[in-house]
Amino acid sequence: MSEPAAAKPALPDHLSTDPRSPHFNAEVLQHGIGIRFNGVEKTNVEEYCISEGWARLPTGGKSKDRYGNPMTVKVSGKVEVFYREG
Questions:
Q1: Could you tell me if residue 76 is inside a domain?
Q2: Which domain, by its residues, includes 25?
Q3: pLDDT of 1-24, one tens digit each?
Q4: Which of 4, 15, 1 is nearest to 83 (CA)?
Q5: What is the mean pLDDT of the chain?
């Protein structure tokens, strides 16, 4: 018999892709995660919080913040997070 696949960590309520953030979790991010915002799957989410119902998305322009990172906008709505299969 083969051993069961490694258990994936529980998805956090608040997660960021920025390594400088206190909400960054490399262990969770190494597994493919998907984010559904208001029923639409998003691939460009920088940060989210399920309990507060918001996600931070890039603005899409060339604007940068004072640290040289792309500008983001915080949008409110229903956030659903899941592990991608495969």
A1: yes
A2: 14-83
A3: 444 556 889 999 999 999 999 999
A4: 15
A5: 90
Tokens of 9: 């960590």
- The pLDDT value given to residue 6: 66
pTM for the whole structure: 0.84
Model pLDDT, residue 1: 43
Q: How many domains does the chain have?
A: 1
Q: Are 55 and 37 in contact (CB under 8 A)?
A: yes
CA angle centred on 19, ends 18 and 21, rounded to 5° = 70
Nearest to 35 by CA among 61, 13, 7, 9: 13
Q: What is the 3-state secondary structure (H, E, C) of the chain?
A: CCCCCCCCCCCCCEEECCCCCCCECHHHHCCCEEEEECCEEECCCCEEECCCCEEEEECCCCCECCCCCECEEEEECCEEEEECCC
> Which tokens belong to 48?
């989210």
Tokens standing for residue 65: 């913040």
